[in-house]
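Appendix B. Extra example for self-study. Work through it before the problem class; the solution is given directly after the inputs so you can check yourself.
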Amino acid sequence: AQSVAQPEDQVNVAEGNPLTVKCTYSVSGNPYLFWYVQYPNRGLQFLLKYITGDNLVKGSYGFEAEFNKSQTSFHLKKPSALVSDSALYFCAVRPYSSASKIIFGSGTRLSIRP
Amino acid sequence: EAGVTQFPSHSVIEKGQTVTLRCDPISGHDNLYWYRRVMGKEIKFLLHFVKESKQDESGMPNNRFLAERTGGTYSTLKVQPAELEDSGVYFCASSQVISPTGELFFGEGSRLTVL
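Solution. C-alpha cells for the complete assembly:
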C-alpha cells in the first residue's frame, strides 16, 4: 500500500536553531514528493517539491528538503528556525501513475519558541 | 487574484442531518479536488473533477457523500445523512493543469462537526 509516514506529531525547536521534520514514504515507482504548510486559520500552502535531479531541493521561506532514495525519506530542514515558522507541516507523495491523488502524511506540528 | 474559497468555514450539525459544503476554485482552474482530514490524521483524497466531469472518485467513503460541479465552476459536497465519523476538516483544492508534478492550491477548509 502506498503511504507517507511522519513519525513525530510535534517538533519543538528554539528560535535560531536548525530544525528537521521527518518524512518517509512507501510508493511503487518513482515518486514526486511535496511539502505543504498550514499556518493557523489558513489553507495548505505549497512549500517545495522533488521531481528529479539534485537530491537537495530549496523552497519558500528558507526551507529545504533532502530526497534519499535508499532510505525512502524526504526530510524537511531549515538551518535557523524563526518563531513565524510555527505551523502544521504535511509531507505528501504523488505516485507517478496518478494525476489525481496526493497521499499525505498525518502532519507534524512545528513549534518554535523564542 | 482570489484564491480557493470554501464555505462555510465551520458547520455544526446533528447526526442524521444534511450539510452542503461549497468550494470556489481559482478562476480558470479546470481541476478541482476534495480532500478531508479526520481526527487529526492524514489528509485523504476524496475525488477529482476535471471541469464538470469526475476524473477520479475512488476516495469517496460511501454513498452518503455526493459531489457535484455543475458548469465546471464551483463545486458542492453534500453529506446526507451525516454520521459522527464524518466530522473533520474538508479541504478543496484546484489546479490549472493535470500533472503529477504540479502543486495544488488549497482553500482554508470547512470544519464539519457532527454531534
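Self-check: The mean pLDDT of chain B is 93. If your reasoning did not lead you there, revisit section 3.
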